[in-house]
Write a structure and sequence with these properties.
The protein contains seven helices and six strands. With 225 residues, the protein is an alpha/beta fold.
Length: 225
Amino acid sequence: MHVAIIMDGNGRWATKRGMPRVFGHKKGMEKVIEAVEWADDRGVDILTLYAFSTENWARPKQEVDFLMNLLVEYIDRELRNLHEKNAKIRILGSPNGLPSICVKKLDEAVELTKNNTGLEVNFAINYSALSEVERAVKNIVTNGYDEDEIDIDLIKNNLYTAGQKDPDMIIRTAGEKRLSNFLLLQAAYSEFVFRDICWPDITWEELDSCVDEFNGRKRKYGGLK
Ligand code: FPP
């Protein structure tokens, strides 16, 4: 099973507690660690986490810097553990514009875990689904494909998620019900599960309840059953 999560509500979670927004991101990172543990324990095949969108650059510099530092801190703290779990890390998104220390750490994480065969963890960082499609089309043109060679498989093989199955379920926390430029093509037949709780309040029980909700859905893929 491929589970993708839009981890929303860090800011609101902190503000509600009279704390600066970044406090919510810090707690959010702890929950990223927990979500990976959960996914590994539950036998999830792929876990995709939306950590930073290209639109997030519009936030105050202090918050952006904090998030970038948090990514570095996360890799420093968790890379060994992820590797021991046999997890394979992939980054969805562009390195352009990320601080060089961030790119270095992310490269290191991908390189170290590239031959691992367990849980695949995708971090969407500096990610935009629309830019991902644009990049795929450019790749295809650059590689000189003819019109009759172009099909959806070729397009999907030029996305950041090349070779991976599409998300079965996309979870979004904090009450918002939109995709926010996340995995547009890959979400064609995903089941959407929404929770009102903010990401820093996520628990194993809540993630299990999302899977229960997913299991209760009838996936018809446009057919009749
Ligand atoms: C959305 O909450 C969350 C983000 C934009 C960042 C997600 C980052 C983390 C969960 C922590 C760091 C990640 C890793 C992989 C170490 P928001 O700030 O939009 O919340 P709001 O809607 O309440 O303002």
